[in-house]
Write a structure and sequence with these properties.
18 helices; mainly alpha; MetI-like fold
Length: about 400
């Protein structure tokens, strides 16, 4: 007869899965007198904060400032009779975003998960309930239908992208090309020319200008930062010194100083008949500033690659440039994805500084709205609204980073 052993203390513990809400609260919030007191104090503060916010939001706040100025928040002083160009640009982005989503999710068992459906439902609810002004190009009902149509287009394009991705290989390369071409199409729609009325960059503003400067700075700073990181590790002294000097000098200067240099000093070195656009100068300053920080982020990823990877590349007969491009750099970039995306999120938030040099991004257009005597004192409502817009953009970038990490399996 085999001897019986008493169950171990670990096996007698209730698992976290089987805990009832009351047991979980007792274990995590009221385990002793100190935790119980701390839970009560924090709960009291949170409840009072929520009650105070709700009382202000439903009785004191005057939210009319938001729907009245929605066009300014989103497109600045873009001519109202040319809003159809912005709708066309949004349609193109929604179509490509849906196709890309479908192609990336072609191996998933379910394209529309519960969280996705909940998010789509919340977006549709916000569109239906959000008060919209009557502007040229559509009454509120028409604008609402257009927004709902964009949401439906994303879902339909995602389904088509998944169906095409399962039947045709190489679709991702065509989508990458389409995204590249869409940038030039979007620039043409925003600036005009070639048959469209020209819209000066001084009329760009709000979310349109913020998204444009962020996107261009991200696209330009990424290759420049990678080259600087490789240059700082180069065996050629001149390239290494120049890269190091640039990185250390730019990282030692605040961004606002670089923006003022672009605004005031760059025109001093140009001929009298050449004047760079203010948006171009601000975007150039953001790009140069971000590239220096990105170089250090990528260099950290390069230093994390084991020496055996270099030796394995050499044993395959690859020279230094090929081993760097094909073996080492892809691994370094995968390791650096969280830090790189964090830097890009900081870049998106740093675009608010361009309002100091005379550009009307989201923060700048908000200040101009608050200068209107009709909306004086409505700081909380306006800043809360643009804060939610920034949070939505940053959260989308963060989620995209997590999906990219999962796709590339960087945690193995």
């Amino acid at each position: 007869m085999s001897a019986t052993h008493p169950p171990s203390p670990v096996s007698q513990r209730p698992s976290a899965v089987n805990l009832t809400p009351l047991d979980w609260a007792k274990k995590n919030l009221f385990s002793d007198w100190f935790n119980s007191l701390l839970t009560i104090l924090v709960g009291f503060v949170l409840i009072n904060t929520v009650i105070g916010f709700l009382r202000w939001a439903f009785s004191t706040a005057k939210w009319s400032v938001i729907p009245t100025n929605l066009p300014l928040f989103f497109v600045g002083r873009f001519p109202a009779n040319q809003y159809w160009r912005m709708w066309l640009l949004l349609t193109l982005i929604a179509l490509l975003a849906g196709l890309t989503w479908g192609v990336l999710a072609q191996m998933a068992t379910r394209l529309f998960s519960r969280s996705v459906l909940i998010g789509v439902g919340l977006a549709a609810l916000v569109i239906v309930l959000m008060p919209l002004p009557s502007v040229e190009g559509g009454a509120p009902l028409l604008v609402r239908l257009k927004l709902l149509g964009l949401v439906a287009l994303v879902l339909a394009a995602a389904w088509v992208g998944r169906w095409l991705g399962q039947r045709k290989s190489g679709l991702g390369n065509w989508l990458s090309l389409a995204w590249g071409l869409s940038f030039f199409v979007g620039l043409w729609l925003m600036a005009g020319g070639l048959g469209l009325p020209v819209v000066s960059t001084t009329a760009w503003g709000g979310l349109l200008l913020t998204a444009f400067m962020s996107l261009v700075s991200i696209v330009l700073s990424f290759p420049f930062g990678v080259l600087l990181a490789l240059g700082r590790q180069s065996s050629l002294p001149v390239i290494r010194w120049l890269s190091t000097i640039y990185i250390e000098v730019v990282r030692g200067v605040p961004l606002i100083a670089i923006l003022f240099i672009g605004l005031i000093m760059i025109p001093l070195f140009l001929p009298q008949n050449i004047r760079l656009d203010l948006v171009l100068r601000a975007t150039l300053g953001l790009t140069l500033f971000t590239a220096a920080y990105l170089a250090e982020t990528v260099r950290g990823g390069l230093q994390a690659i084991p020496k055996g990877q270099y030796e394995a590349a050499s044993s395959l007969g690859l020279n230094t440039p090929l081993s760097m491009v094909l073996i080492v750099l892809p691994q370094a970039l995968k390791i650096s994805i969280p830090a790189i995306v964090g830097l890009f999120i900081s870049l998106l938030q740093d675009t608010t500084l361009v309002s100091i040099v005379g550009l009307f991004d989201l923060l700048g257009i908000s200040r101009s709205i608050l200068a209107n005597p009709q909306f004086i004192g409505r700081y909380a409502e306006v800043y809360l609204f643009i804060g939610l817009l920034y949070w939505g953009l940053c959260y989308a970038m963060s989620q995209g980073s997590r999906r990219l990490e999962k796709q590339l399996k960087t945690s193995h």
